[in-house]
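Q: Predict the assembly, please.
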Amino acid sequence: MRILVTGGAGFIGSHYVRTLLSGDDPEHVSVRVTVLDKLTYCGNPANLAPVADDPRLTFVRGDICDAGLVDALMPGHDTVLHFAAESHVDRSIGSDVPFVRTNVLGTRVLLDAVLRHRVRRFVQVSTDEVYGSIAKGSWTEQTRLDPSSPYAASKAASDLLALSYHRTHGLDVVVTRSSNNYGPYQFPEKLIPLFVTRLLEGGRVPLYGDGANVRDWLHVDDNCRAIDVVARHGRPGEVYHVGGGTELANRDLTARLLAACGAGWESVDHVTDRKGHDLRYSLDCTKIAEEFGFRPAIPFEEGLAETAAWYERNRDWWRPLLGRAAPPAVPR
Ligand SMILES: NC(=O)c1ccc[n+]([C@@H]2O[C@H](COP(=O)([O-])OP(=O)(O)OC[C@H]3O[C@@H](n4cnc5c(N)ncnc54)[C@H](O)[C@@H]3O)[C@@H](O)[C@H]2O)c1
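A: Predicted assembly structure:
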């Protein structure tokens, strides 16, 4: 089995690769993994350090938009797991050009090569943000896409493009859409690692608006297990939701992070709200539970405590990255 993992030096992709290669799943003993990653500001070879010497891993630094490179790499692979993306909403509000380029055009380059080289399966890793915002209830996989940010719009476009290759060309495509991931090795511009790293350094943290925005939190390990299940058993042309079952308003999450880091509300700056800030995301995850018995296994309190402890132990990993993080939000 040969797997091509795009974006395998990022947060979720690297977790998937580390788990695949260091786990004891007998099905993975003979697996071979090619990581294709451009190493943008958030791609980090250190994320793959624990498996860097594994002979089953080949790392290729390159761009998914480079059709020649993708065409040369693709033959011989059985499955493509597509994690590579521009992934930070705030950056997409500043400039959406890299988002359309990588998330839409890059996905097209991959799909075209997958089709031409008769790769068995394409797994599109996506997000709940494609649905926009929901005040009450939860989205099912049939809900109409209604993205708010340029990031979400570019992911919606890439999901639809991937699914169109299934309908038009019969390509075996499956899509996962998950809620907000957290865990070790997440680039310190996303909420949890941003807050934890700043608080650990005795700094201040920016809370958008009144902190009422609600997100569902999913441990990266649970998401990677779900992606693996869908990659192996998902039905072609289907979308699967993956949620953590922990909905929290940002102000409640902030309270937990302050407690975990031994800080108080005096460390919080209330900053101007994000443009077009979605109020709430919520996924109905009945389908993946009923078809595969999948449920998240890591309780949020436990996962958050372990994550905060990981950042405390691994300052050498995140300190060099701070200069590359998105510019700070504006205090109100
Ligand atoms: N982080 C979340 O909470 C979350 C939630 C749902 C879905 N997702 C999706 O999961 C995927 C992975 O997210 P993440 O949080 O690990 O992102 P990340 O930003 O940490 O990693 C993205 C990786 O893609 C690479 N990359 C970017 N542009 C590239 C290009 N043109 N060619 C090759 N490589 C390129 C980067 O170098 C990086 O290693 C994304 O598709 C994202 O939309 C993320």
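Residues 6-7, 9-13, 36-40, 42-43, 63-65, 83-87, 102, 106, 125-127, 155, 178, 180-181, 187 surround nicotinamide-adenine-dinucleotide (CB under 6 Å). The domain at 2-178+220-242 is CATH 3.40.50.720 (Rossmann fold).
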